[in-house]
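Long-time lurker. I teach an intro course on protein structure, and each term I like to show students one example going from raw sequence to a predicted 3D structure in token notation. This year I'd like something fresh instead of my usual example. Would anyone be willing to generate the tokens for the chain below so I can use it in lecture? Attribution to the forum is fine with me.
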Amino acid sequence: MFAAYAARIDRDQPLSGLELGERPAPESRPGWTTVDVRAASLNHHDLWTLRGVGITEDRLPMILGCDAAGVDADGNEVVLHSVIGQTGHGVGPDEPRSLLTERYQGTFAEQVTVPTWNVLPKPKGFSFAEATCLPTAWLTAYRMIFTNAGVRPGDSILVQGAGGGVATAAIALGKAAGLKVFATSRDESKRRRALELGAVEALESGARLPHRVDAVIESVGAATWSHSIKSLRPGGTVVITGATSGDRPSHAELTRIFFHELKVIGSTMGTKEELEDLLAFCANTGLRPIIEDTLPLDRTREGLERLAAGDLFGKIVFTV
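-- Reply from a regular --
Happy to contribute to a lecture. Here you go:
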């Protein structure tokens, strides 16, 4: 079957390890389901895989892709939960959780197989392209806001780095949930689009907010860390899910954190139950993911190049 896969690891030039071509189709195994992929969305995790983060050389070649929506063997339209081993279903209770592409072949292919427990019905009214955007970026944003940030309708949040998949999801979800959403970006066009998406104000990176917020949704890392901490009200919460600009800020802001009793919470992906809640939330509100572009799978390199350059607002989806 045709697939896009990591053949080599290169931390400095990750795309040099990407190859497109034939790979073995997944073999059937007890407790697992094989899905014909119709659409698969791109995530920063795919770039990290090519850099060797979360994977070792002995697992190569590894088909990329965490997210997919498609059709199972019975003709059901489905969407996949990307976390393997979270409950032990299909892998046993002693295996640690992992994302697709860390231990198991991913979704940038004609077929993928996952534990049957990880297969959910695709909601009616969703295209395959829309559905595949939800299990990683949108689920991550959902968990950050509704599980870990501790905010309620009427509260305010700051979303750093408007444009990325998690950030755009957080703006849209926050607006739909009745939150007052501020967003930042270095790019003027992305700030305009953040306003169109529902932010009450979109500012340049590092700019002073009109008032301090209840929570910060942080996926940028070192470049925005001090601003995130300084933007919180006393007792507020910063929820971290990534560090695309690096994980070692020049100033940790420890004095401000303890003096203002701020909370710092790490957040990774989400549970299957949270994904079910997210699907229901989007179905009930009419909310849909922001898709920057849809490309055929044989243009995976182009999509990764655009992701690496930061030239996106929303998600890139590959069709199969």
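Some talking points for your students: The chain has a mean pLDDT of 95. The chain is about 25% helix and 25% strand.
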